[in-house]
Design brief:
heterodimer, A: 225 residues, mainly alpha, 69% helix, B: alpha/beta, TIM Barrel, two-stranded antiparallel sheet, 11 helices, globular
Amino acid sequence: MSEWWTYRPEDFLLFSPRVYWRMFELQNEALWSLHLVTVAAGLAIFMFLLRRPNRDSGWIGLLLAALWVFVGWTFLWNRYVAINWAIFYVAPLFAFQAVVLLIAAIMPGGLRLDRRDVAGWTGLLFAAAGLVLYPLFPPLVGRPWTSAEVFGIAPDPTVIVTLGLLLAARGKLLPLLFPIPSLWCLLSGVTLWTMDDRQAWLPLVMVAIVLAALGLRSLIRRSAS
Amino acid sequence: MTISRRTLVQAAAAAAAAAAILPAPAIGQATAPMMRPIPSSGEQIPAIGLGTWITFNVGDDPALRDECADVMGVFFEAGGRMIDSSPMYGSSQPVIGYGLDRLGRPETLFAAEKVWASSSADGAAQLERSRSFWGVQRFDLVQVHNLVAWEAHLQTLFEMKAAGQIRYVGITTSEGRRHDLFEKIMGSHPLDFVQLTYNIVDREAEEQLLPLAAERGIAVIVNRPFRQGALTRQLDGHQLPEWAKEIGTTTWAQFILKFILSHPAITVAIPATTRVNHVRENVAAAYGVFPDAAMREQMAAYVRDL
């Protein structure tokens, strides 16, 4: 691209905020009442992690893998790509993330959600916010309830819950599981920011939390060795 | 699309319909929209077209597709002809095709498209896809989008024009980018059209490009006349000057469009909108009297000082 320095993020925004939020309205309308199932599944994850933190959590990886495929297919591939051609290249990354989650879930020591340091608890807190608070945002920012973003149905809350859980996890494949959700949060945050949307800070703060948490852990590890 | 007698009659009928829809012009004002000649052919075209950047990228949403078709319907009723799009504009092309189907394929359509690909071969395949999305037999105008791979595409487009597969060839830029190269291509290739950004605050094109277009006989399409809506939003809190009535403007959008269209080198401005009342308002700017050079400077100074 010539004279790339003359382009601003808003030059790459191909759609209006109205069209963007209508996608969520149509997605919710098409998939309602599956929301109840995905939110119940999310609550079950938290109940399990709080009551039995040391038990095998492979099923959580399997569940997340299924939801990443589902959101990638129903939302990114079947809706978002129609208004944003760049999603054509992003949607396969959701499938890749699902495959890595699947492998991590079934391989011994691949994914254990029993890390309870400061970063781990912060991750769980943000994951809970992604599950419970995210759908409540529309009236706060002047949008109809019908455009609510729900875990397992819309990408942002699904990705934020996943990142939060990963911060509370340990496992051999963990380094492979952070990049794609973090990049999605960055992409989504910049998209919302270019639309002047008040929700833009949410995915961007999540990326900052992940970077800070991983940086802090690395620092602690180095000073301990 | 060739202009048949039937087409001309339909265009005249559309202009008459527009006169019925639009506010009645003041005494002494014209009753038909401003027409501008395409210098390379002499064909007359209405000075207000319809852009589709962002506004027509509504995906598969049936309600929003219908709104776009309504916008197109009012545009054609008001006498408009040129609709401009690009493969870069997401779902805009299939949405135009949907609208044309719903409107019974208006024969007055002037289909302006772009090629936006890194190679000539990819460009040819892309053009065929675009044609299929629009559902037209051929495009009236094909432009090289933002000068991407411009040498290869221009060669292909001139061959297509010679073979009668398209009628006009052009190049585009936006927001003042690559004006040096743009000027070089305008001076060395037999272009029919150029498309660039020009409005009451972005006047860089007046220095070199617009005089060169007039000298070389190249039609000029103006994109982003309202800076993607930012300019009208910025001006909306201010009163129009009292003297704006002299040129029949009642809104800032018309004020800006009158300024653009009164430059003698400009052929068509292509504001984009999702609202039918805005289409009417935009097309109405092509009616009536236009500012002279002195008033143009007064208009620019007024906006600059706000």
